Amino acid sequence: MTDTLRPGLFLSFEGMDGSGKTTQMRLLIERLRAEGYDVLETAEPGGTPIGRQIRRILLDSANQELSSRAELLLYFACRAQNVDEWIRPALAAGCVVVSDRYTDSTVAYQGAGRGLPMDVIRGLYQFACGPTAPDLTIYLDIDRAIGLARAHARNAEHAAAGQTDETRIDNEAAEFHDRVYDAYAALAADEPGRIRRIDAAQSIEQVHADIWAAVETHIAAHSLSKGPRHV
Ligand SMILES: Nc1ncnc2c1ncn2[C@@H]1O[C@H](COP(=O)(O)OP(=O)(O)O)[C@@H](O)[C@H]1O
Ligand SMILES: [Mg+2]
User: Which of 58, 60, 160, 207 has the smallest C-beta neighbourhood within 10 Å, fewest atoms?
Assistant: First the structure.
């Protein structure tokens, strides 16, 4: 259901906590900007100012009683706002939009992880996002134990620097994360044209090189032109 009438390129990053999404997004965006492309960076949950308010509710570890259905609707509320306010206008203006997580995360975490019905998730996706789907999704595939170790090391570093980490999902049982991992693997197998699986256990430099190769191909296929442009 990709919106083929828009000139921009929509990229999303997916993968378990600690797989390197934030690290790799930073490197990719830096390189795209150095090459002269206009980039809109966004994150889920979050992005727009309203999205960031929703993010606080979703990731506050005090909100243990947040129900699964309420959580699902908040994720889609956040995404709808992001699509309307930021993503669609940026794509219409020819930007490269890069999102840290998108609907695959909802399928993996709320669908497979929490066990909410996939047909409901698909219906909400259609309602919240319409045709605004990623052209290319970078799936950073990491062994759960390695991802967890990296995420813990990162959180300890952030805590030492006085930053608080949001941990509501991180505290889930191992079985939850196994279901999420399996869901990502199934999505990647089902949609090989859109989802590019990358071995995230490699060095940061090698992962970046693999991502760049995939993105370059899509830019060429899209005949994407460079900025400056105004959203
Ligand atoms: N390829 C890699 N090899 C080793 N450590 C990595 C690699 N990629 C990221 N890291 C480190 O792992 C931690 C988690 O990475 P991060 O980018 O925050 O992951 P995510 O955003 O997917 O949760 C960070 O401390 C980061 O520096
Ligand atoms: Mg991150």
Answer: 160
Can you count the helices (H) and strands (E) in the chain? 9, 5
Regarding the beta carbon of 43 and ligand 1, being less than 6 Å apart is answered no
Nearest CA to ligand 1 atom 14: 18
Identify the DSSP state of 5. T
The domains of the chain are located at: 9-222
Residue for token digits 């994360």? 177
CB of 23 sitting under 6 A from ligand 1: yes
Please state the CATH superfamily assignment of the domain spanning residues 9-222 in this structure.
Answer: P-loop containing nucleotide triphosphate hydrolases (3.40.50.300)
45: cis peptide before it, omega within 30°?
yes
pLDDT digits 0-9 by tens, 94-112: 999 999 999 999 999 999 9
Closest ligand 1 atom number to CA of residue 200 = 1
**CA atoms of 38 and 41, how far apart (whole Å):** 10
Regarding pTM above 0.70, the answer is yes
Which of 30, 154, 199, 207 has the most ligand 1 atoms within 8 A of CB, as the residue to mutate? Answer: 154
State which of 23, 44, 155 you would mutate to test the pocket of ligand 1, scoring each by most atoms of that ligand within 8 A of its C-beta. Answer: 23
CB-based contact 208:27 (threshold 8 Å): yes
pLDDT at 230: 45
Residues, CB-to-ion distance under 5 Å, ligand 2: 21-22
Asked if residue 78 lies in contact with residue 54, where contact means CB atoms within 8 angstroms, the answer is yes
What is the token pair recorded at 49? 């100012």
CA–CA distance, 60 with 55 (Å, rounded to integer): 8
